[in-house]
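Data availability (excerpt). The following record was deposited with the supplementary files.
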Amino acid sequence: MNCQLLPADALSDFKALLTCYEIAFEMENFVCPNDKHLLSVLADDRFRAFVATVDGQVIGGLTGFILPQYYSSKPQFYLYDMAVLPAYHRQGVGRALLEELKSYCTTAGFDNFFVQADLEDTHALEFYRATGGIAAEVMHFTYDL
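Predicted structure:
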């Protein structure tokens, strides 16, 4: 398995990640936006997408946004979505993706990264706690770097 940050021209891998999201999040009637829009998202300097691959196939990933702060000169990263195809659950893929994000954020000089999770999503809550996330009253998870 390999985890990596997608470059701005990685349209096919980005679309494969969106398919992973569609499957993992059980998104009925999902219609993928057109290529022009997806390329503009990938090219946005405040957007990042990471993918996990096996034999060149995208099996999961995460996406999020760089947030400038006004309390600090260091940015934060908001992990917006993360999913792994069901066939690859409990094989360390999610942990590897978080480690890749942590490495990226550390190298780039971020303060931390955080993620929200629904209270009903007990699997996500357990996962973020098990990977070092610190739950806040609003159910944000903060990762100090």
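Summary of structural features: The chain has one domain: 2-144.
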